[in-house]
Write a structure and sequence with these properties.
- It comes from Tabrizicola oligotrophica.
- This is Signal recognition particle protein.
- Belongs to the GTP-binding SRP family. SRP54 subfamily.
- One of its GO terms (cellular component) is plasma membrane.
- Helices cover 53% and strands 13% of the residues.
- The chain contains 11 helices and 8 strands.
- An 8-stranded mixed sheet has the order 3-2-4-1-5-6-7-8, sandwiched between helices.
- Helix 4 crosses helix 10, helix 5 runs parallel beside helix 6 and helix 9 runs parallel beside helix 10.
- The protein starts with a helix and ends with a helix.
- 47% of the residues are buried.
- The protein binds guanosine-5'-diphosphate.
């Protein structure tokens, strides 16, 4: 997930920890390399700059250069700062399901992995949390997408709302909520239609559905391979419909990881889950500590 960033940082820190005594200039030089590595990983410029500033302030404050193992001190400060930038203030738990039926609105661009992620989350809630889950596709433009969700629902062993031709997204959302209540479901996922690009029609539709569904969570699914674009998409969706969290997909690919590092700092929204493949169990809860550990190898 973060192979090249991890490698780059690894070699910087190897040198630092082997160096024994460090001058302030040594620390500065190392941090410049860290900054370059972050930028190469497609971390946004502002985030990389703030990151280095925060590490430097702490390194200076703790008189790192005078400590017994100055290199390790710097690595520890970088680790803690990584956790901070990944998690922000207070990392939320996994999905909150209360007051059943809880609606979870899934939003995102077409091809981001929204439908796949919806089914993965349904499987997780059913298998790990014992929840009764209903899936509904609102993608009225693409009958194939509706069928795909029904197929995936069958694969993971949860119910899907029967498809009724000619309904609008809002009508489907209403029917899904009614069905969720009558059927005694804990959770109903509303898989909204994606578009190739953000456009007004899409946003209006998502807003209308949101107002009807009153979702407990609105999760944005974005392709982690798209780096800073993923962060821009999140900013736009959050501004227009309001999101409660993000799922980064394709983190199994050779992406540079920048989206993960910039997301919280730029959008203020937490990454909740990462997609790590096409299989239905290829989904991980996003844990800042673990990710920071992975980055630092
Ligand atoms: P949607 O248009 O946003 O609903 O996207 P889909 O859920 O149909 O996913 C598009 C493609 O991406 C499918 O082939 C999925 O199997 C694949 N996909 C989704 N999530 C992941 C992931 O985390 N990793 C990988 N490698 N592929 C994924």
């Amino acid at each position: 997930m973060f192979e090249s960033l991890s490698e780059r940082l690894g070699s910087v820190f190897d040198r630092l920890t082997k160096a024994g005594a460090l001058s302030e200039a040594d620390v500065d030089a190392a941090l410049r390399e860290v900054r370059t590595a972050l930028l190469e990983a497609d971390v946004s410029l502002a985030v990389a700059r703030d990151f280095i500033k925060a590490v430097k302030a702490k390194a200076t404050g703790q008189a790192v250069t005078k400590s017994v193992t100055p290199g390790q001190q710097v690595v520890k400060i970088v680790h803690d700062e990584l956790v901070h930038v990944l998690a922000g203030e207070g990392e939320p738990d996994a999905l909150k399901i209360d007051n059943p039926p809880s609606a979870i609105l899934m939003v995102g661009l077409q091809g981001s992995g929204k439908t796949t992620t919806t089914a993965k989350l349904a499987k997780r809630l059913k298998d790990k949390n014992g929840k009764k889950v209903l899936l509904a596709s609102l993608d009225t433009n693409r009958p194939a997408a509706m069928e795909q969700l029904a197929i995936l629902a069958g694969q993971v062993g949860v119910d899907s709302l029967p498809i009724v031709k000619g309904e609008t997204a809002v009508q489907i959302a209403k029917r899904a909520k009614t069905q969720a209540t009558l059927g005694g479901y804990d959770v109903v996922f509303l898989d909204t239609a994606g578009r190739l690009h953000i456009d007004e029609v899409l946003m209006d539709e998502v807003q209308a559905v949101r107002d009807i569904a009153q979702p407990r969570e609105t999760l944005l699914v974005v392709d982690g391979l798209t780096g800073q674009d993923a962060v821009n998409v999140a900013t736009e969706f959050d501004g227009k419909v309001g999101i409660s969290g993000v799922v980064l997909t394709r983190m199994d690919g050779d992406g540079r990881g920048g989206a993960a590092l910039s997301m919280r700092a730029v959008t203020g929204k937490p990454i909740r889950f990462v997609g790590l493949g096409e299989k239905m169990d290829a989904l991980e809860t996003f844990e800042a500590e673990r990710v920071a550990g992975r980055i630092l190898g």
